[in-house]
# Entry
Amino acid sequence: MAIKAVLFDMDGTIWEAPIDWGEVRRRMGIPDDGHPIAHHLNDLPPEERKRKEEILRRFEEEGIKRGRPIPGASELLSFLRKEGIVCILVTNNSRSSAEAVLEATGLDFDAVYTREEGALKPEPEALLRPLEDFGVSPKEAVLVGDSHHDLLAAANAGIGNVILVSPSERARSFFPSSADFHEAKDLYEAKGIIEKLLRGA
# Structure
């Protein structure tokens, strides 16, 4: 089946944000249990949630100020454009952070989905909704990410192929034993994997 769309994660995939997320969780009193921070916030009383959301916002802003583009993203998107493939950004980060990253990198996606749009990775709906909006089936999609949230969301959504770029040891600790994915050391290698998938398709 042909590849019609590529879904991209943001932090750790196209943008390097030098944030210690373990420290963020400690500041917020949230356990490092593999679930997204925003999932924990959804279950809190309004006042506590507001206070902890402010902590998260400050760290995300710091990630924008001190962050940098990850090499190879522009080349990968240009290649996909030439192939007529839809490029979608799906992040658990905020809309304002995503817009700041896109302004800093000059990257242009067909659509951007953030935590304000609803479901969060690893929920399958976080990927299924964007694909449905473009009339693309999960088997016609590739996901490029770096974390267990990306891997689990793709597996739960039935995404055809997953490419993880230099996943951390922490992320690996949450990988299911049956996890099936391609691993790339950088986005240039991810581009090579997609080229091979296209030839195979």
